[in-house]
Amino acid sequence: MDLTRVFEGEKGTNPEELIGAAHAACFSMALSLMLGEAGFTPTSIDTTADVSLDKVDAGFAITKIALEERSCGAGY
């Protein structure tokens, strides 16, 4: 993995950002399904991911992904 772009401030999406976005999207879809099955109708679900990339023995690794979710809907 080329970390040059990450640490030199170059524009563009890096692999860590894509993993965070995928994780947030999957969570949003699962939450929507669960709310629907419970009888609620979500009108909006907004999930963001904060990805932690840290130096480990073998190089760099994602050590944590923190999700923050906000949703609105009828009945909750």
In which range does the helix fraction lie? 25-40%
**CATH architecture grouping:** 2-Layer Sandwich
CATH-level-4 superfamily name? K homology (KH) domain
Strand content: 35-45%
CATH topology: GMP Synthetase, Chain A, domain 3
The neighbouring-strand order within the major sheet is 1-2
Number of domains: 1
Count of β-strands: 2
- By oligomeric state, this entry counts as single chain
Q: CATH class, anyone?
A: Alpha Beta
What does the largest sheet look like?
Answer: 2 strands, antiparallel
The residue ranges in which pLDDT falls below 50 over 5 or more consecutive positions are none
SSE pattern: HHEE
Mean pLDDT: 89
Rg, nearest Å:
16 Å
End-to-end CA span: 43 Å
Give me the secondary-structure category: alpha+beta
Which word captures the global form?
elongated
DSSP summary: helix tally: 2
Word description of this protein:
This is Peroxiredoxin (Osmotically-inducible protein C). One of its GO terms (molecular function) is peroxidase activity. InterPro entries: KH_dom-like_a/b, OsmC/Ohr_fam, OsmC/Ohrsf, OsmC_Ohr_Peroxiredoxin, Peroxiredoxin_OsmC. Its EC number is 1.11.1.15. The chain has 76 residues and is α+β, with helices and mostly antiparallel strands. It has one domain (4-74): K homology (KH) domain (GMP Synthetase, Chain A, domain 3, 2-Layer Sandwich), CATH 3.30.300. It has two helices and two strands, in the order ααββ. The longest helix has 23 residues, at 15-37. The protein is elongated.
